[in-house]
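Module 6 notes. Inverse folding takes a fixed backbone as the condition and produces residue identities as the prediction. Think of it as a translation problem where the source language is geometry and the target language is the twenty amino acids. Below is one complete input and output pair. Work through it position by position during the lab.
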């Protein structure tokens, strides 16, 4: 018997036990079709339809939830596996493409702290109520849908570690390092061929949009299951579904509503956005940041006040500050100087912190040099 068969047998035992089936025959009020799509389900073919999800109030995607949740409520009755280290942060992020937090916290009121699964699903199974499975059944039916969509693998070891590896005792603070799935391949460049004109193409830099411009996949991938992007067996993936041209444009217009057609259509694939075009070329440190680290308002990004004090209110630690992040690497001589010597009048040091003044950080060589020298990229500190 393979892992999948054992899994479905266990599901049947704790969601719809044999006693419950007998009760269903005696009490017609219990409708087997609520869960099964055939008259004679078996362990090999349980004919299970997607569970009807009772809906609570909408819960927006939150970022203040825990990164890891240790699922150890069943440790008293579980003798084979250690508690599950559930990567909550990753799953919360992925839920944005479907229903958000309410996908799991389906009885949670808006704005309320999500209740634990145990508050509704008891550890001990209530056989008379097949609409409310026990805690073990709730965990499994919550997880198995996406895991079968991903690669159709329901082996127990995907989530569970055998106790032979040592019990966790609820002390783990990070997800398991064991990787059961191949890494997701995200294409950097996608070329869309349109029907507007002959050879009309739209180059879309997917990785740049996903990693740098916007963190939330759900902005474009709405109400889609995992298999839209991550089905390991699909011959052809349709991550955006069968969108009409109008619907495709609606996604892009969130940020490009004021751009002309030529901004995307017929564009050279090598023509990528350079922040210097905004009038503010980014130095080494800022160039590697996510756009939303500074442009906190989602959607169409607007020009910001680029004074350092808008973000660095409390300044920087003098002992640990690396001057190369400014784009200017200090030579051996200038590394020995106090910061306020060069930045006199625009920066002050207090309690070990370098604090820029409201006017921004400026520098002057006049404190040490009287020959009007200045720093240049070409000549460094020997420029004039």
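Target side of the pair, the amino acids:
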């Amino acid at each position: 018997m393979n892992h999948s068969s054992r899994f479905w047998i266990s599901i049947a035992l704790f969601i719809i036990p044999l006693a419950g089936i007998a009760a269903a025959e005696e009490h017609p009020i219990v409708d087997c079709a609520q869960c099964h799509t055939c008259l004679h389900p078996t362990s090999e073919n349980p004919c299970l339809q997607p569970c009807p999800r009772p809906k609570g109030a909408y819960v927006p995607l939150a970022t203040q939830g825990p990164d890891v949740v240790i699922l150890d409520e069943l440790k008293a009755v579980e003798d084979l596996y250690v508690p599950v280290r559930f990567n909550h942060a990753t799953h919360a992020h992925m839920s944005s493409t479907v229903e958000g937090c309410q996908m799991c916290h389906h009885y949670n009121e808006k704005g309320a702290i999500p209740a634990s699964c145990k508050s509704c699903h008891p550890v001990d199974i209530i056989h008379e109520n097949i609409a409310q499975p026990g805690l073990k059944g709730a965990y499994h039916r919550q997880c198995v849908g996406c895991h079968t969509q991903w690669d159709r693998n329901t082996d127990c070891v995907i989530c569970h570690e055998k106790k032979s590896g040592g019990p966790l005792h609820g002390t783990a603070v990070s997800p398991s390092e064991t990787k059961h799935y191949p890494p997701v391949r995200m294409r950097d460049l996608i070329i869309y061929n349109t029907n507007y004109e002959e050879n009309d193409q739209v180059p879309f830099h997917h990785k740049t949009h996903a990693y740098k411009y916007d963190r939330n996949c759900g902005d474009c991938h709405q109400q889609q299951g995992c298999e839209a992007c991550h089905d390991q067996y699909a011959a052809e993936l349709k991550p955006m579904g069968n969108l009409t041209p109008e619907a495709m444009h609606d996604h892009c217009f969130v940020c490009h509503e004021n751009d002309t057609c030529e901004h995307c259509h017929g564009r050279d694939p090598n023509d990528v956005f350079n922040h210097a075009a905004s009038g503010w070329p980014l130095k080494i440190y800022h160039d590697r940041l996510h756009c939303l680290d500074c442009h906190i308002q989602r959607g169409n990004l607007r020009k910001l006040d680029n004074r350092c004090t808008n973000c660095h209110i409390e300044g920087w630690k003098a002992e640990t500050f690396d001057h190369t992040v400014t784009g200017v690497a200090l030579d051996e001589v200038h590394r020995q100087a106090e910061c306020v010597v060069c930045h006199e009048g625009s920066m002050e040091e207090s309690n070990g912190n370098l604090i820029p003044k409201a006017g921004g950080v400026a520098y002057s060589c006049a404190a040490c040099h009287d020959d009007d020298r200045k720093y240049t990229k070409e000549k460094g500190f020997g420029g004039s």
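Reference fact for the lab report: The domain at 3-165 is CATH 3.90.10.10 (Cytochrome C3).
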